Amino acid sequence: MNKNTAFLFLILLTNSLLSQDNDSLLWTIEKHMEFKRISNTDMSEDGKFVAYEVREPVMADEKSEYISQIWVASTDGKINIQYTRGDKSSYSPSFSSDGQWLAFLSERSEKTQLHIMRVMGGEAEQITNEKKGIGAFQWAPDGKSIAFLKADEQTDEEERRKKEMRDVIEVDKNFKFNHLYTIKIDGHNIQRLTQGNFHVTGFDWSPDGSKIVFAHKPDPKINTNRIESDISWISSDSSKIHSLVNRPGPDHSPQFSPDGEKVAFQSEGGSPQPIGLSDIYVISLEKNKIESLIHTPDRAANILGWSDDGEQIYISETYHTSRVALSIPSDPSSKQPYRLFTDLEGNTSNVDITGTKMAYVYESTDQPAELYISGINGSAKKVLSNVNKDIQIPEMGNSEVIKWKSKGGMEIEGILTYPVGYSKGDKVPLALQIHGGPAGVFTKSFTGNPSIYMTQYFAQEGIAVLRPNPRGSTGYGKEFRYANFKDWGFGDYEDVMSGVDKVIEMGIANPDKLTVMGWSYGGYLTSFLVTRTNRFKAASMGAGLPNLISMTTTTDIPDYLVGHMGSEVWDDYDTYEKHSAMYRIKNVKTPTQVIHGANDLRVPFTQGQEFYVALKRRGISTEMLVLPRTPHGPREPGLLMEVTPRIMNWFWKHLQVKP
């Protein structure tokens, strides 16, 4: 063999091996788990650096957990380095006002403590040493101290009872409240600012550092979030509390204006709205007058901050199938409309705006998340991170937003993901996936992300996935979100089933190979669907709530359910029964898998157990999978990886065919 022949042979062999590697690159569960999450961006005030948090799974040496570490990138794109390391998480980075220090929370000493380190290098210093750890924190404007939240500690008597194993829990008594503290950055002079029978949930320093405005509620229970929260302020060197907003319903997330004269906050307008509402209001500290600003498109606004000139308030919100940033005028008399300043092709999240620069995390259905920098108008867009850049991405099943008319004429949107390698004209199995909430929403997030339902894994298996946004979903305005009031299992049923029919009409879905799955409210609607139709060959109910009567008095958010049903259960048993799959279970013929977390308080474990036992006693094909140590969804990567393959196996078993 001469040199030329040998060289040609080597090229052909290399190409063959590369081709084999590409052919073997598939969407496995392990591939999904490679993609990391980016969050908690913070830009230095001079606009030169962005700190951000990267989370990834660790599954080695009998570990199954997520670890977060902090990275810092320069906005000119020249620097991108990891700042924290180790086998314990560090997160929530925040620059001091002069840009010399980076503060963050870390679990290095078991409990969550506050650390600081110099931006230009050096070892991190732990500056709190609280027995139970601390919560949220924020730098003082002068960079010399930090305010933070800490929960009340147990008394000596409580500690003694715990050691003696006589620590009886008295429900709804003896709450441990979050309160405000400040600490100098040298770790000395800890000062407690608030105390009493209230729970602080969020706060903000005034620009001159003289005041701290904070939101508080009567107790730490999650259900109280939907009922009551007020806003007060306190001098940063005293303990006298001044009430600012005190009215029915939740008022929260306060932020000072740049001149310190006003506070913007999120509110339901002076009355509880358990289905969900978040409008923006401002109050003048001098006049003590509350004024409403213009409504955002979805009326589910989250405040990002004020513009430097105080004329605009930046908002994060869902707009149809995209997560976006927008601005509204801070003047209550202004007629200027809201302005979207991120695109609708994907999701823009974790936005931090400083001056005219905007740092954010961006992803789309076919593009994994990375950190970006741009102007507020989207100009000079530049990627700063390479967190997911080097991960090999297999051939993807394409995703597109589709629309259809539901029964009654309501327009519904959804995201359809085709099987990998789909050819036009093929009729394939379809998985209908229903989101939680019901005020959840399917958006244009990367379909290769790890999740309970790993979309590209289904696509790799030759299954199309339809993810509809039925009435009740967020992203489409208040009326759409409220449209399933006292209508669970009926109007939303028509919305998702008409979506299935749409995909069949498109010539994509095989009507004889339909499956359905969903978690939380998605599990609820899955359970209800199988009582109303036999069109599905298999179903998987995840953390579902088939019995609204028993659910209402056992969940940790009863007011949310009562808000949707319109009354307490004892005042209207008929409505609760009408919308509960358990009272229609005699109709079920569909093989239904049940999955539930053993430690779920949101949708108690007995909800899944009720459905499973009833199906089994009726002779319907079923199985129940219990996720140990799990609340309302998998928190351990190892358990997360178990869910999708087990659903897939259940579906193939009852579809009785696999491509």
Task: Please state the structural category.
Answer: alpha+beta
Find the count of extended strands (DSSP E, 2+ residues): 36
Number of helices: 12
Q: What is the rounded distance between the termini?
A: 44 Å
CATH topology (level 3) name of one domain? Rossmann fold
CATH architecture name of one domain: 3-Layer(aba) Sandwich
Largest sheet: 8 strands, mixed
CATH class of one domain: Alpha Beta
What is the helix content?
Answer: 10-25%
Average pLDDT, all residues: 94
Shape: globular
- β-strand amount: 25-35%
Global Rg:
26 Å
CATH superfamily of one domain: Alpha/Beta hydrolase fold, catalytic domain
Low-confidence stretches are 3-23
Write the layout of secondary structure elements.
Blueprint: H1 3-23, H2 29-33, E1 37-43, E2 49-58, E3 65-74, E4 80-82, E5 90-95, E6 101-109, E7 111-118, E8 125-126, E9 137-139, E10 145-151, H3 156-163, E11 178-184, E12 191-192, E13 199-205, E14 211-217, E15 228-235, E16 241-245, E17 249-256, E18 262-267, E19 279-284, E20 290-292, E21 302-306, E22 312-319, E23 322-329, E24 339-340, E25 347-354, E26 357-364, E27 367-375, E28 382-383, E29 399-405, E30 411-417, E31 428-434, H4 455-460, E32 464-469, H5 478-481, H6 491-505, E33 509-519, H7 521-532, E34 538-542, H8 548-552, H9 558-565, H10 573-578, E35 592-597, H11 605-618, E36 622-627, H12 637-655
Parallel strand pairs: 15-17, 31-32, 31-33, 33-34, 34-35, 35-36
Antiparallel strand pairs: 1-2, 2-3, 3-4, 5-6, 6-7, 7-8, 9-10, 10-11, 11-12, 13-14, 14-15, 15-16, 17-18, 18-19, 19-20, 21-22, 22-23, 23-24, 25-26, 26-27, 27-28, 29-30, 30-32
